[in-house]
Amino acid sequence: ATDADKGSELTFSLVTGNVPFAVSEGGLVTVSGEIDFEVDPSYEVTVEVSDGVDPPASLDFTIDISNVNERPTFGHMGHLETTVVEEQPEGVSVANITAIDVDSNDLHFTIVSGNDNSAFYLETD
Predict the structure, then answer these.
(1) Are 46 and 15 within 8 A, CB to CB?
(2) 10 Å Cβ neighbour count for 108?
(3) Residue 46 half-sphere exposure, CB side, CA atoms within 13 Å?
(4) DSSP 3-state of 114
(5) Which of 44, 61, 83, 88 is most exposed, with the fewest beta carbons within 10 Å of its own?
(6) HSE of 20 in the Cβ direction (CA atoms, 13 Å)?
C-alpha cells in the first residue's frame, strides 16, 4: 500500500476474526494457525491499512486452501497387542483393526511382517 502524504506511517491490520492468518507491519499475510482443507477449504479475509489520519482503506480477498493427500491413520493409538488361546480353529478372530482416511474410503490392508508361516490372514467386509 502507498500513501500520497509524505512521512505517514502505514499500519496494517487483519479485520477478519477467527482465521489462521496474521498480517505484518509491512502488509505480508502469513499463516498463524492450523489450516486444513477438510475443515475449511477457503477463507474470506479483510485487511485494512491506515495512515493514522484518513479513514483506513480495506481489501477483501479469498485464500483458497489446496488439499494434500494425508496418509491414513489407525483407529487405535500406539501399539496394538492381543492374545489368542492356543489350538484355536482356523477363522477365529484375533483383532478388529480399523483405519480412517479423510481423503478416501478406499483402504487396503496388508500384513507386512510377523506372519512368516501364514498363520494369519486379513478378512475385509
Answers:
(1) yes
(2) 8
(3) 7
(4) coil
(5) 83
(6) 13
